[in-house]
Amino acid sequence: MATTKRDYYEVLGVSRGAAEEEIKRSYRKLAVKFHPDKNPDDPDAEEKFKEIGEAYDVLMDADKRAAYDRYGHAAFAQGSGGFGRGGFHDPFDIFREVFGGGGGMGGGIFETFFGGGAGVDREGRQRGSDLRYDMQITLEEAAFGTDKEIEVRKLDRCEKCNGSGAEAGSRAINCPTCGGRGQVISSRGFFQVSQTCPRCRGAGQIIDKPCRVCDGEGRVEKTSRIKLKIPAGIADGSRLRSSQNGEAGIRGGPPGDLYVVIHVKEHPIFQREDDDLFCEVPIPFAVAALGGEIAVPTLEGRAMLKVPAGTQSAQIFKLRGRGILNVNGRDRGDLLARVIVEVPSRLNAEQRKKLEEFAELCGDENTPLHKSFFERAKEFFQ
Ligand SMILES: [Zn+2]
Ligand SMILES: [Zn+2]
Fold first, then answer.
1. Which residue in 16, 130, 150, 164 has a CA-CA distance of 20 to 30 Å to 301?
2. Which long-range contacts does 329-333 make (Cβ < 8 Å, 24+ apart)?
């Protein structure tokens, strides 16, 4: 009877002045410890679990707590009016309120403690999974941005039941497989393992007449076309989020998101370094020596570049603002053209003669790099 009950504060191991947070914290710890799924063959644990659930139920309700503080267990004795409800609600329900609900979709503590059953609420709603889609784009598309439409085969909301998973006129009943617990015990070798109930997915409830199109899931596999805006300046490896375009939720739960991972294809001419572009441009050696204008490729077509007389191979010329627009939309990078001086590989007789004459005229005078190099290298040649 009432007098044999332990004090609720003692049950939860908190002081009489304990704040709500403290009570919650203590309850969680004890509930995890004594949860029947973790102590399958221990009737004491189940009793304790019920006891702490009952204590929690009272101490978390300001009115009930005040009544308890004043009258003790007598406040809830059957037929005494006040809070007599013929008992307390199912402790498993409290458990789910604390761990599964509240935190809402997406796992939360429930998942962390028991694995699986992530974010299933009591109506069996569950957020859909996030999906990943890998997309290849060209450097030009990355530079200027583009609109894409992709086709994704995924679980989408069932139109027949509008995602609810229920036939018209059906209702929610306790899951017969797990008896409403949401968890089932199975044996693996010597161990007994508590698992999310496969039938209700941990919700504890099922629909008595599930939608025939989606089998009660509220979602079916479909091919969807999804429009994506690829912003100018996007970098290789960037991840774009297409909100709510992931898998549909179960039984009307919110959809997941679609993450699009961008892969920028290698370009035959340009290499990208942040917002700058690099390219190599071969130029005839006479132009390098005499100076002149050369054509340089850019993302917008060819540009003309003046190179001065005496240009050396590997010299880099900067075309300001001809790189890639920064993804924040403000500055544009530069194009860096590295010139490669090309030496003619075949000379006809006349060309050869002129070049020999040229070499004779130059002597040692016109090769400043060559000269200083051999000054520095002298000691190696003794
Ligand atoms: Zn349906
Ligand atoms: Zn079940």
1. 150
2. 329/231, 329/232, 329/233, 331/275, 332/275, 333/274, 333/275, 333/276, 333/277
